[in-house]
Amino acid sequence: MRLWEMRKLLLVWELLDHQEAIMLAGLAFKRKWQQKRKAEGKPFDKPNIVTGANVQVCREKFASYFEVELKEVKLREGYYVMDPEKAVEMVDENTICVAAILGSTLTGEFENVKQLNELLTLENKETGWDTPIHVDAASGGFIAPFLLPDLECDFRLPLVKSINVSSHKYGLVYAGVGWVVWRSKEDLPDELIFHINYLGSDQPAFTLNFSEGASKYAVELVLCLFQQLILLPYSFINIDICCKIALNKSYTMPTDVQHIALLRVVIREDFSRSLAERLVSDIERLKGNGCAPRPHYLV
Ligand SMILES: *Cc1c(COP(=O)(O)O)cnc(C)c1O
């Protein structure tokens, strides 16, 4: 989302360590859910979060550290992201949110947030719950708004209450920096905000760290402004994305599709013909070794 759109649209954002941002977004959902359950006189000791088994380790960490049961929608051969229908089937009264991923860490695919929003709206209507959606746009958040502006996967969908983005996946910032943005002030429980005045004025804070160097955030803000004011945002973002893309990763898939090993190939701007030829010959060699590589998803 471009900054000028963000200014109009959003009331609450935090520029943080990205993992911290993810923890805090989850904590806000947990606390909101607990408040509601307390007000209704219902038990509030068994929160769960629904997500695909393609989940990034940060969400497993959140579930463990903040004592929230992680309910994973299974993957199946040929379908490596969260199936919205199955996700909604797993939702119950203790679900703090469904976390969808824009840019699965495994394959880069986007989950269908729009369909999830539709199905969950129906489920909420039937049951009287109001289960919200979180969008983990760690890698997709800086792509979708520019390349796929009509893809509804953000605050255009009423159940989407918060979105996180990882800045450092696109370079030009220090490693680890990220954002979390909430739809409105109401989606961030007041009791989680601490007010300090160590520097002579009221400073609301929602962080896990206390004293911390600000340089990494300053660099990101300055670059964002620079990008806004001086460079054409589109060309800048495109170059930025391309420069970052340099990785070949291999890993086995999660439970249920563990027998599949994945080689992720991301092509960057300076990918040359000779590199392409080397890649093809490597793949051919794999075939010769009895492997049967199959392309799954190409951007
Ligand atoms: C990379 C990634 C994260 C974690 O991001 P970091 O900035 O590396 O901490 C979280 N979720 C998804 C889907 C990711 O791809």
- The overall average pLDDT, rounded, is 82
Q: Going across the major beta sheet, what is the strand order?
A: 1-7-6-5-4-2-3
Order of helices and strands: HEHEHEHEHEHEEEEHHEEH
What percentage of the residues does DSSP assign to strands (E)? 15-25%
Distance between the termini: 20 Å
Radius of gyration: 21 Å
Oligomer: single chain
CATH topology group of the largest domain = Aspartate Aminotransferase, domain 2
CATH class of the largest domain: Alpha Beta
Instruction: Return the domain count.
Output: 2
Number of strands: 11
CATH architecture of the largest domain: 3-Layer(aba) Sandwich
> Percent of residues in helical segments?
25-40%
The largest pleated sheet is described as: 7 strands, mixed
**Form type:** globular
CATH homologous superfamily assignment of the largest domain = Type I PLP-dependent aspartate aminotransferase-like (Major domain)
User: Would you identify the regions where 5 or more consecutive residues have pLDDT less than 50?
Assistant: 1-11, 230-247
